[in-house]
Amino acid sequence: MLLKTITIALLLAGSGAEQPNVVFLTVDTLRADHLGVYGYRRDTSPVLDALAARSVVFEDAVCEEPQTGPSFISMLTSRFPRVVGTTRNGVPVPAEVPVVAESFREAGYETAAVVSNWNLKAALSGLERGFMLYDAGFMDKRIGVAESERGSDKVTDLIVRWLAERDRARPFFLWAHYMDPHGPYKMHKGFNPYGKPLRELSPVERTRARYDSEIAFTDFHMGRLLGALPKANTFIVLVADHGESLHEHNYVGHTRRVYQTTMRVPFFISGPGIKARRDASPVRGVDVAPTLLGLAGLPPLDRMMGLDVIRDAIPLERVRVVETYGGSIPRDAEGRRALATRPPSLQAVIVGPWKLILGGRKPQLFNLAEDPEERKNRARRYPAETQRLTALIDVWNAANPKVLAEAAPLSEEDVEALDALGYLR
Ligand SMILES: [Zn+2]
User: Fold this and answer.
1) 169 and 247 both lie in a single domain
2) Do 77 and 40 have their domain in common?
3) Of the candidates 27, 35, 67, 337, which lies 20 to 30 Å from 244 by C-alpha distance?
4) Contact call for residues 418 and 148 (beta carbons, < 8 A)
5) Domain count across the chain
């Protein structure tokens, strides 16, 4: 694997073609339909919309699991969370599973990550592997506890500084992770796409207005980052780890539901040779790693489960099974060990326009083309479809048996920070 990577890197070097920079630009908890590029009517994202206007925009991308750790691990390894055992936050990617940053580093890239969710800290995610710089520092204190998320302004400041100081003789792989849209949501002064003061809004609207303000604030600071990137020979892959339910289906948050509000994510790619277009192909979290490597001409990792969305043909009838394992992390190791053995709390399969959710009180079947908000359960009306989709989930479960991986021990600081983010119980 190492040799193969080096060979390809040498071939590229020998061909005189300069290797491209690759930027993995991620926003935590950013649902697709709150961005202008995905049809949102409020002006939350002028910067991302402009970036999307020169990108291939995937209109139908879903995450594997609506949880930060599992989702990012699936994106950066191209394996389903259940097959590596990383179905919950706080379970680091096992050492034997390769991650894309290692490939970039082996190929001579300068690699750096600035991440801002406590669950992505090296000890909890294991995702620092391959990064020469992995900045997950949360130095500030706010409301009397260790800050569990870092603001977009600071993320950009750090990266802009890194870009100025980096080794210009080498290409770079950069993971920029923004966190503001994650709860608790706050209204940022000067960033109010709702256009009305909070006091004039209903409680539900207030939640959405604050969430949108977080997006607009992040979008602005991502603009500063984009302005600092090299103009030539740089690919940008924008994606989110999961969405957020904002009172839809009587729920606020992301870990406990698998409706499209939490599963559908923005995903678009710009860079040399990429023509701006919309693409309705069904794509998913595990496609990210093959795509990142493909953009740089690097070989695939061992046992990848996704497709390269730029180079591979994506079948329209692709079967996408996604799942969640519920919300909180128990405080004690005993509880976490017991939890690790549990089956998913919810599973869903998406095929064509159909989506079936299992694990609730009864099966829920939706036609996403006619009912994108998943309001009308068609399970009783279409029993054959319900049966067909149930069988697809069974097949997928049999093909991808769940394994156990060791949860990281939590430090006192971890407990404090995860509690502030609402992850502990
Ligand atoms: Zn997240």
Assistant:
1) yes
2) yes
3) 337
4) yes
5) 2
The model carries a pTM of: 0.93
Q: What is the pLDDT along the chain (425 residues), one digit of tens a residue?
A: 444 544 444 444 444 468 999 999 999 999 999 999 999 999 999 999 999 999 999 999 999 999 999 999 999 999 999 999 999 998 999 999 999 999 999 999 999 999 998 899 999 999 999 999 999 976 444 444 556 668 999 999 999 999 999 999 999 999 999 999 999 999 999 999 999 999 999 999 999 999 999 999 999 999 999 999 999 999 999 999 999 999 999 999 999 999 999 999 999 999 999 999 999 999 999 999 999 999 999 999 999 999 999 999 999 999 999 999 976 777 777 777 777 778 999 999 999 999 999 998 999 999 999 999 999 999 999 999 999 999 999 999 999 999 887 788 888 888 888 887 777 76
At a CB cut-off of 8 Å and minimum separation 6, what does 389 contact?
Answer: 349, 351, 354, 356, 365
Centre of ligand 1 to C-alpha 16, Å, is 39
Distance between Cα 190 and ligand 1 center (Å): 25
Within a domain: 413: no
H or E element: which one contains 6?
Answer: helix 2-14
28 and 93 inside one domain: yes
Whether residues 262 and 368 share a domain: the answer is no
378 and 258 in one domain?
Answer: no
Indicate the residue among 297, 315, 333 that finishes a domain: 315
* Per-chain residues with Cβ under 5 A from ion ligand 1: 28, 68, 241
CA of 191 to the centre of ligand 1 (A): 22
Judge whether 385 lies within some domain.
Answer: yes
| Bridge partner residues of 367 (DSSP) | 354
Residue 337 lies in a domain: no
Residues 355 and 295 in one domain: no
241 CA to middle of ligand 1, Å? 5
Q: What residue numbers bound the domain in which 54 lies? A: 2-315
Whole-number Å distance between alpha carbons of 337 and 73: 20
Structure tokens at 213: 């303000």
CATH code, domain carrying 100: 3.40.720.10
Q: State in Å: Cα 3 to ligand 1 middle.
A: 34
Rounded alpha-carbon distances, angstroms, from residue 232 to 21, 172, 295: 9, 13, 14
Ligand 1 midpoint to CA 62 (Å): 13
In a domain, 322, yes or no: no
